[in-house]
Amino acid sequence: MDQGGANGPDTDDRKDRRGRAAQEADETRGPARNRAPDATPGRTAREPHPALPAGPALPPVPAHPAGLTHPAGPADAEASSPPGGSRLGADRVPPDEAASQAPQAPQARPVPRLPAPAAPAAPARARRRPRVPDAREPAASGPAGASRLPGRAWESAALARAAADPFPEPPLAWLAGCTTAGSPTTGSTTAGSPTAAASATAGSTTAVPTTTGSTTADPATTGSTTTGSTTSDPTTPAPPTAAPPTAPRPWYATADDVRRPIRGFTSDSAVAPGESVAFRVSVEPPRPFTVEVYRVGHYAGHGAARMAVSPPLDGLTQPPPLVAGRAVACHHWWLSWRLDVPPHWPPGAYVAVLATADGERAHVPFTVRDGTPADLLLVLPDLTWQAHNVYPEDGRTGAGLRHAWDERGRLLGEADAAVTVSADRPYAGTGLPPDVGPVYDVVRWAERYGYDLGYAHATDLHAGRVDPTRYRGLVFPGPDRYWSAPLRRAVEAARDAGTSLVFLGAGALARQVVTAPSPAGPDRLLTCRRQRSGGRAAPWRDTAPEQQLLGIQHAGRVPRPAPLVVRNTDHWLWEGTGAAEGDELPGLVAGDADRYHPRTALPPHTERILLAHSPYRDADGVRRHQETSLYRAPSGALVFAAGTAGWAPALDRPGHADPRVQRATANLLDHICKRA
């Protein structure tokens, strides 16, 4: 195999691509052994998350639904594989391919905090594990044009409503005040409204405030607004109370960067139980607001559970953002409220909803991580979220590492984008990160089926706050384009120690970044160096191609969704899906695509196989192709790369869920977790 330095095309710059003939890569099919690595000695099963309370708009459900049952059948796809290897020959290739080897913030007085309630004693429970049905079980219908597939109904209720294409930032009904998730006819109660305040104090198990008052400080002297920490109290549950319906409101009507009715961010976006989350909020004009805290999960299809509600807080209009070149920062904003995270809160993805009494809303995401070992660690791509954040999206000053506005209201490309961005600012638009939809799709699906999950940010691995070798697998659930060198070294070391890697998006490791401290703390500034010619961000492939970790690498953008063409269907990953050789999964190749580049070195491996080979045409009409890759490292770790941004939405996105992708993903995770 030629392992020279020529790399595949990077189609981000259309001028570089124009007139270039399609380069169809040669693919290598290696032997596909399906023996999973031995279970790591000393790993202990973590107790399932305790039941979480739900709010007036969300019925109470457990974190991992206790009523979940599975039809009779093999407990693992691995059970039907021959011992010691798969049924796939060493040199199997798709029939249409040829085989080859180839300014300081003002100092405010400390803000007082209310202590969190004591954690209740958690009863010992046995760990539940998911099971995937086989062909002997009742069939469930798949997408249009697909045969009836073994399994049960996988789709959850419509958390992401009205998604017009596979990868928008989805409208989140439970956050944005549209209709109650799972109930299209009942409107949700606006946080901060009288009905919300009444329901929060009327015995609801969703959020039982530990205080009804608040401590108000004079912003002119302390720089802070109303303070006080409110958390749920699961020790005295009471029947939930139904909130009176309110008129539905458009999901996009309450957050923008032009009017700036309410915006906010956190100084630490990932914390451990027992630590605190500091919110910096600007309200224009100044008026009271409240904070509702939700945890993202399946929750019987509702998509989230409300964990806490703040007392009414005094809003303050913060100073304008600081601008230096293209960089925008808000680290000089006053502290508005501090939430003490109770020790009993489970790890997960959380969203704080900032809401005024007149219905204006914004969102602030944060993550609760946990040092307890788990089977799988979900690594949320906060580096990429910050790189793509163009706050303020006002048509003038906002900029990220990929796009920027100019003074004439034009959205510029990467060559004119920022070189450095700050994490000390809100996210543009609704306040949710760019491309967060696929991440929440994976979270809801994985929690629905009981996988033992830990949560962390990419910066946690970068800074060494989380040891990735303690997990059987690392799951990268969405677009993850920007990586630092310490992050990559940590992930490669985990792979070499036997931890499997699962990439459920495309375009990972496309750009290299470095971090630096800001006045607010370490690693709050993100810089992407530029190539000398063209001003484009320097890709990883200039020095260490991403294929050397993923097994494939970025091929380009996919302007129109195309079907994913399944290959090597006798591999255990496709077992029980009902997919046959050459079957097409409609619309699954979209957004971005990866493929194998034969002139770029492969990672060390003992087995390797490509599980999809899908043609599509780029924006210039040039024929290209996408591929899905799986290889086994010498350590025994599996490394899976979906190679398309459409894989994660196919797990739980209404209108895009595909039972074949769901089953294949379950086969993969069960194989990694050794659930047989």
From TrEMBL:
Residues 96-111, 153-164, 179-235 have a biased composition (Low complexity). Residues 50-63, 236-248 have a biased composition (Pro residues). InterPro entries: DMFA2_C (IPR046540). Transmembrane segments: none annotated. Residues 290-654 form the N,N-dimethylformamidase beta subunit-like C-terminal domain. Residues 11-30 have a biased composition (Basic and acidic residues). Residues 1-252 are annotated as: Disordered. This is N,N-dimethylformamidase beta subunit-like C-terminal domain-containing protein. It comes from Streptomyces mobaraensis (strain ATCC 29032 / DSM 40847 / JCM 4168 / NBRC 13819 / NCIMB 11159 / IPCR 16-22).
